[in-house]
Amino acid sequence: MSANDTVTISMTETVTYEITLTHARLAEILDVPAADVPALLADIDNWAPTGPIEDHNELLDEIDCDTYRAGSEDRTWAVRAARNTAPVITDPSDITDDLRSAAADRCEQRARALIAQGVAEDTALAQAADEAVLFTRDLTQLARLRSHTLAELTRAYDGNVYRLLRDLGDHLDLSLAYIDRATINAHVERSLTDAEWQAIHGHFTAMDFDDHVGEQGTFRTEWIESVLDKAGVPGYGFTTEGHPTTNAQSSAA
Predict the structure, then answer these.
(1) Which domain of life does the protein's organism represent (predicted)?
(2) Does residue 180 contact residue 161 with C-beta atoms inside 8 Å?
(3) Which H or E run contains 82?
(4) Looking at residue 86, what is its pLDDT?
(5) b/e burial code for range 207-224 (CB count within 10 A of at least 16 → b)
(6) Domain termination site, one of 158, 182, 199
(7) What's the pLDDT tens digit per position in 22-48?
């Protein structure tokens, strides 16, 4: 077993997340010696709900930062291993300024932690730098995988934004609103030229419209209240039993 051997870890809650990382990186995340990794991987069936991983936040964050939808009793793990036969090549253009900053911060924190544990400063700095390289490599690989997955998903829906977002919203129990080129065409009652669209879409980010609606207050809150009313669920200012909350009573007074 080499610290450079790789393992692909899958974690399933309501959906399945997956990450590929080296044994050395996994050992760092779990804060165990690299020599202990094979035994942990061999015991994968017992990682949850009461095993050695259980609700290990660092590992959950490494796989995906939004995986706290279920407890460990509803979580399953799987692994598949492969031995590296060649060094992993990372395209420098894939390393963003944010990633460089995160790697530098992680390197500094790791070096300080190792020194605090009694590791010689030179050794701690060298180990922290090596781990920062692995951290950067893993995140760039993950970003590339996500980009590829998104492209494949879009192709699977033939570029139909409505169907893609509808099915994604249904899968995640979300209600979505979005603005695209067709929406703006309808608003201006003409077709935007490619040059006009090129100028406009650079000002879009994924959550711009959601943030704007949220800032207006009434758009979002009134819609939520209408849904609650249709479902017979008490809304803002009421308890589950339908009694006014303390805040609502204070406002009325």
Answers:
(1) Bacteria
(2) yes
(3) strand 76-82
(4) 46
(5) eeeeeeeeeeeeeeeeee
(6) 158
(7) 888 888 888 888 778 888 888 888 888
